[in-house]
Amino acid sequence: MSSELSYPKSKVNKVNRLADRGKYDCKTVHEILMASPVVHVSFNPGSPEEYPVILPMIGKLGSFENPSADLSEPLDLYLHGYVSSRIMNVARKAAQGEGEADATPLKICVCATKVDGLVLSLTPNSHSMNYRSSVIFGTVELVMDAEEKLYAMKLITDGVLPGRYDDTRIPPDSAEMQSTQILKVTIDHASAKIRTGEPGDYEKDLKRDDVRAKVWTGIVPIYQAFGEPQVASYNRVDKVPGYISNYIKETGDAEKEYALTAIQKASAGKS
């Protein structure tokens, strides 16, 4: 029996279509979130007459109570933004309610997706993509503790580029602290869905020599690549720091390797 920690399946997070692609272990769900430069956060602004809102944001996982926790363990998702932005105002209003007794914390859904390849088949209906996606459902808490706020700011900065926080003018000054709001999302439900492998054409098409003779099939790998760092007009540091150049190479190589390896893995289900 596996000892990996997983999110329990429920009607909220269960993968229904092509269910064998679903993953529920913490490590898989968390790795996809952490590898995504941008996550999309959806929430209800509060009134049935208003449209649902989806925002691209930077979100990173961590545990203030257990800083040494790794991606296979329970973690919180931290989001940051301007203190008076819409999502911050909605979260604040939900937390306050009409009074402490009827305060109802904001519930949100967060999605992260990595596309690893274009899967080109014999027929339009069998085309697909190799991908990794995570979806979490969580409850929002406004971070008010100064120490936890600094923890989250470092977590998010280093989550974008490891080592960057300590190589900047820190700590943030009082104006920066006051203008920045941190949201901590407790993950209530989560799942991942992954597609790998070659095209999954139907047997009826594979038997047609005329179609196979004229239609190219295969996979176009897609992976994140980093360009050469370009200096700012006011930069006075002669050499690009090693933590930046190392990250560019190591992460770029890892992204490419995954996209190519995913082609060789068996795919679960059609499309």
From TrEMBL:
<dbReference type="InterPro" id="IPR024747">
    <property type="entry name" value="Pyridox_Oxase-rel"/>
</dbReference>
<dbReference type="Pfam" id="PF12900">
    <property type="entry name" value="Pyridox_ox_2"/>
</dbReference>
<dbReference type="InterPro" id="IPR012349">
    <property type="entry name" value="Split_barrel_FMN-bd"/>
</dbReference>
<protein>
    <recommendedName>
        <fullName>Flavin-nucleotide-binding protein</fullName>
    </recommendedName>
</protein>
